[in-house]
Amino acid sequence: MRTQVGIVGAGPAGLLLGHLLHLNGIDSVIVENRDREYVVDRVRAGVLEQGTVDLMRAIGVAAGLDRRGLRHDGVYVSFDGRRHRIDMAELTGGKAITVYGQNEVVRDLIDARIATTRPLYFEAQDVEVGAIDSAAPTIRFRHGDTAHEVRCDVIAGCDGFHGVCRPSIPAGVLAIYERTYPFGWLGILAEAAPSSEELVYTYHDRGFALFSMRSPAITRLYLQVPPDESIERWSDDRIWNEMLTRMTASDGWRPNVGRIVQKGVTPMRSFVAAPMRHGRLFLAGDAAHIVPPTGAKGLNLAASDVLVLARALKAFYESGSAEWLDRYSEICLRRVWKAQRFSWWMTTLLHKLPDETPFDHQRRIADLDYLTSSRAAMTSLAEQYVGLPSEVTFESAGLLH
Length: 401
Ligand code: FAD
Ligand code: DHB
Hints:
- By secondary structure, the chain is an alpha+beta fold.
- Helices cover 36% and strands 28% of the residues.
- The strands form four sheets. An eight-stranded mixed sheet has the order 6-5-14-15-16-13-17-20. It has a six-stranded mixed sheet with strand order 8-2-1-12-19-18, with helices on one face. It has a three-stranded antiparallel sheet with strand order 3-7-4.
- Strand 14 (200-204) and strand 15 (207-215) form a beta hairpin.
- Helix 1 (12-23) runs parallel beside helix 6 (102-116) and helix 8 runs antiparallel to helix 9 (323-350).
- The relative contact order is 0.17.
- The mean pLDDT is 97.
- It binds flavin-adenine dinucleotide and 3,4-dihydroxybenzoic acid.
- Residues 8-14, 31-34, 39, 44-47, 102, 124, 127, 158-160, 163-164, 187, 266, 285-286, 293, 296-300, 302 line the site of flavin-adenine dinucleotide.
- Flavin-adenine dinucleotide binds at residues 8-14, 31-34, 39, 44-47, 102, 124, 127, 158-160, 163-164, 187, 266, 285-286, 293, 296-300, 302.
């Protein structure tokens, strides 16, 4: 097979890139190693920045988002039993976040891809990328009983943190910046109507807790737990006890309790591989960087990376100029590092460290008090939470829709 852009991975990064390229008349083949149900059912992110929502609308994949997405103008930060609202829309000139499950985003993007009739392989086995230093890199894989080789001009490595693309770059080329945290998140989905219309980020003496939602009938909650915590140690009763202990506010607000329909533990890390490119292989999304989830940035960074890549590929095919491709990593990393910093800051502000001293505790309460009483501090959180601007926007990129 021959294509222009070979895309490894059908997560948000790969699927969004495929659609942007399709609209601009650029061929692609998407190769995913899991099956379609697995990719759609994986429960992950839920918060879309304003720019991610605008991008999905601009490329015509927002019908579900516009019907079922929940726009939030504000967010709560809770500590010492009191909730404080930060009015993001008022502080950012009308910007907001939208709660719409990543699995819905992926389902909508798969439907859009299939409607284009361009190739998308699920359940590809033994996926390998080769000749990435040459002008004709390849993706090899098996599908059923057939061995395939896709000859490409460029490969987009959109295969997540555990994919094959980043490890195929020769040792010593990438600088790795990494930090792990001494805690993880236990997340649940519960059949319970959300008891608040907006998210609540809570700092409690027993650790962080987060109230979120997926729909008017489903609540999504997270708890700080030790890293590598076994989910087997958490009965449903124990989960609800801990959630309610940490989240119940002095005015009586608390999450509604319901049947738990999904639960799991996620580790937390910050990770950046730089540059996000080697030869004709370009890394995008989690393949290049991971943020701890407290800032709700991972999916949104994946979207902003592929917008830059689509812009660069359009210039490459229209004029033969590699100038934008050469700037891809630099443009992405400027935004990635700011999101890294924000995610690290939200994480350290709201989580309890295992060796926390009374000094650390008082300093943290002062930090939270400042954040929730200073308009300048709230504006800073708000503009980062709704999403910082990128050098490349859909309009400035001149992309077609
Ligand atoms: P992925 O979604 O990981 O997609 C990569 C794809 O590549 C997958 O489909 C995978 O199966 C496939 N693949 C892997 N290896 C291969 C291979 N060898 N060959 C072919 N295909 C392969 N982000 C937010 O923005 N907001 C949030 O609120 C948020 N909350 C989160 C909560 C949790 C519990 C978790 C775990 C993550 C959260 N994130 C959040 C992060 C977000 O889910 C990721 O950043 C996002 O999925 C990145 O998209 P991606 O397309 O780069 O990677
Ligand atoms: C959700 C996940 C996050 O990581 C976050 O910061 C906010 C909300 C969610 O899954 O709804």
